[in-house]
Design brief:
This protein is of the alpha/beta class and 360 residues long. Among the domains are: 90 residues, OB fold (Dihydrolipoamide Acetyltransferase, E2P) (Beta Barrel), CATH 2.40.50; 159 residues, Rossmann fold (3-Layer(aba) Sandwich). Helices cover 37% and strands 22% of the residues. The protein is built from ten helices and 13 strands. Helix 3 runs parallel beside helix 4, helix 3 crosses helix 7 and helix 7 crosses helix 8. The N and C termini lie far apart (61 Å).
């Protein structure tokens, strides 16, 4: 059964040490409030995390190392009970990550072992090309292949303009305009999906992600809701992450709507998403050009000639500042975490000395 969910020889090699311990491999297909559903050789099993795994992850300050949908894990299976305990996380091929909404957990892994990221944006009044640039940077960084999916084409008065705006920032990513209602473009999108590969749908609420899943599956698997009339924005419908195997064999994951997608560790992805700007920067006369008043600045020349859109340039600068701020913040957090660990170890050491001195 696991072969139908993308199990590969690479996964088998990574799992070999755990097989000797009596564990079985499983892929996380549902994640909801600390509870998991795994696909294993014994079928689907309900699973929880082993206490030791949770402790090791928390001790190391690496919340991103906890399993998410799409992950392969090593688990102790109890098929007679329909349950299992997850003891280890296998190495990820790709990981779609974002900055978490809170300030405690910095990294949030949205999905793992993804082959293609379908970046879903509605062609209604909520279409935002700057948000699309952010999604592209994160997708390129993840290691997955991005495809831009423009939904609700039947509701757009100027579809050609919206497609052109998306293509202007796509830089290598296909752009497909579709309508689940009329079926327009759906065949071209379905042709992107291959048996055994894993796809994630990423976009803001109301973009039509769940509607796409239902259309692919030919059944109402995901709840859907309309958009608000006042601002064309959607309501949250997906409240958990679930990996669905489609009739054709492709695996697709819907995610809760994310209007803002905080970047983290995305320098390479940002460079790919803004390859045109990086190419201009390489043409500047000075390698450390600040793109201000320096002579021979290719970026400023492109802005003055109209070759480079000022809004795109400002978007690139904004995302660069965001990454720089996170790097500085991560350094402070890492130093604070190391200090807390040192204090705990030091207290434990002093306590052990006191106990030793009390012994007769």
């Amino acid at each position: 059964m696991i072969n139908l969910y993308g199990w590969s020889d690479r996964d088998g090699q990574a799992f070999a040490p755990y097989e000797a311990q009596g564990y079985v491999p499983g892929r996380v297909v549902v994640q909801q409030r600390g509870l998991y559903t795994l696909v294993t050789v014994h079928g689907e099993l309900r699973a929880q995390l082993a206490g030791r795994l949770v402790h090791e992850v928390q001790e190391g300050g690496r919340d991103g190392d906890l399993p998410v949908v799409g992950d392969w894990v090593a688990a102790a299976a109890r098929p007679e009970e329909g349950s299992a305990t997850i003891h280890a996380l296998l190495p990820r091929r790709t990981a779609f990550v974002r900055k978490a909404a809170d300030t405690v957990q910095t990294v949030q892994v949205v999905a793992a072992n993804i082959d293609m990221a379908l970046l879903v944006a509605s062609m209604n009044a909520d279409f935002n090309v700057r948000r699309l640039e952010r999604y592209l940077a994160t997708a390129w960084q993840s290691g997955a292949r991005p495809v831009i999916v423009l939904t609700k084409a039947d509701l757009c008065d100027r579809p050609d303009e919206v497609v052109a705006a998306a293509e202007a920032v796509a830089f290598g990513a296909p752009v497909l305009a579709v309508s689940a209602m009329t079926g327009a473009g759906m065949a071209e999108l379905a042709a992107q999906l291959r048996p055994g590969e894993t796809y994630v749908l990423v976009g803001s609420s109301g973009a039509g992600k769940s509607t796409l899943v239902n259309a692919f599956a030919g059944a109402e698997l995901m709840a859907t809701a309309g958009i608000r009339e006042d601002d064309a924005r959607g309501r949250h419908t997906t409240t958990h992450r679930e990996l669905v195997r489609l009739p054709g064999g492709a695996l697709i994951l819907d995610t809760p709507g994310m209007r803002e997608l905080g970047l983290i560790d995305a320098e390479e992805g940002l460079g790919t998403a803004f390859d045109d700007i990086e190419a201009l920067e390489r043409d500047c006369r000075f390698s450390d050009c600040g793109h201000g008043n320096e002579p021979g600045c290719a970026v400023r020349a492109a802005l003055e000639s109209g070759q480079l859109d000022p809004d795109r340039w400002r978007s690139f600068q904004k995302l660069q500042r965001e990454l720089a701020h996170l790097d500085r913040k991560d350094d402070r957090v890492a130093r604070a975490a190391e200090k807390r660990r040192w204090i705990v170890r030091n207290k434990a050491y002093r306590a052990s000395l006191k106990n030793k001195n009390r012994d007769p």
